[in-house]
Amino acid sequence: MTSVLLNNDALLDGDTIKKQPSRGRPRDAGKNSAIVNAASRLFLEKGFDSTSMDEVAKRAGVSKQTVYSHFSSKESLFGESIRAAILKYYPELALEKIQTHSLEVDLRAVCENYARLLMSEDAMAMYRLLVAAAPKGPALAKIFWESGPKDMELRLEEFLQIWVEKGELVIKDTHKAASRLFVLIKGRPHFMQSIGLISSVTEEQLQANVDEALEAFLRLYKA
Predict the structure, then answer these.
(1) How far apart are CA 149 and CA 146, in angstroms?
(2) Could you list the residue range(s) of the whole structural domain that residue 100 is in?
């Protein structure tokens, strides 16, 4: 990506180079959250390159110095905004609401949670941002992948392994199975939304797609 250095010590792209703050400096949780929220909206509205740390500070209602005291670079702030957005969709949180667990019930809860994330307006905006940035190189995509989707896939693998150990799923390669399930969850609705054929995915469309994904997945892997 043009003018982007992926390191923790400096930031280019028109912002003055800033050094990392000294380790151990206490953070204000409220300001940290405000900075991440402001950055998330700006990245989606303007893209990565067109978002400056000055703009983040202004929208968050803090000084630029405060932004740098929490995040050493725009890249690290982008990564944190991805992590914050994805955390609430992890399998363990989807399963907290379930009283009686079974393979089908738990798998549906996890798939519905992931589907709502993947087809949300923010996720679709981020997808388009990454596609637009792709011709410049993989730098932004790598930050995105390492900041959330990679861990999402790992969490899904761990979830599937639980049911393998219980003898209800037969999977030789949980990594491949998790990747396949992600593809099934996205399905046709995600593709139609990504190219602008539909503006959003309805709850009915989401549920129908999850039904098809579960049927196909369990046909492949259920013991």
Answers:
(1) 7
(2) 90-221
